[in-house]
Write the structure tokens for this entry.
Amino acid sequence: MLSAHTNQWLQGVRSLSRPDQLNLAQRVHRNTVWRGWLDALMALYPSVQHQLGQVRFDHLCRLYLDAHPPQQPVLLDMGADFAEFLRDSTPIDSLADQLAVADWAWMRAHVAPDAQVLDANAFSALWTQAHAHLCLHPSVQVLTDLPPTVIQTWLADRFPTVEPEAKASALLVHRVDDNVQAQALNAANLAFLLAASDGDGVQSALCRALEADPHLNLASWGTWLWDSQILCACPSTHQPGDSP
């Protein structure tokens, strides 16, 4: 009996309908839970909201939650397939689903594990060891499937005062300390990061960057890599320059 009542209550929480069997306190609680889900989902996708407008976005969020209610109390994974849902629910020429991919990456960067990035000495020593492996910060996400127009639109929404990269080959989203950062990647930066993701050594990754852009200014590129703070010591290894 208790199980049947519990299932009915959960159905009420996860549905837009109002079962008559729920008493006033249960209905108030259900509405509070529903409002919490809706607010949490809407907060995850600000760029989608700006693209679609408040009314359309609110309607789609309600439809999504009605079809895909959270299955656990922790809401970190809620909305993981929202981009796919939008792909099937919005006009084919809408950018909403692609903007949702970038918004989701922003959230995942917030909750990614932390790691110590290379300090100045380790970063400098790295370039003296051609075969040293590269490891990226756990929060690093390289989105290669987004068109340049989507990247520029999303960056303009997140950082309205920053001029976006004109030739965007991909989008980098990551966290520095407690702050999530994002930037467009040119061809050379993308090639280097993909090589690092593949576990390539320093020399191989640098060669891939130069293949992507033979005129790469290494001094400026090195400054970008250092400022980005995305390289970490590889697990179970010493940082370059450390004593064994």
In short: The longest strand covers residues 170-176. The radius of gyration is 23 Å. Residues 14 and 168 are 41 Å apart (CA to CA). DSSP finds eleven helices and five strands in the chain.
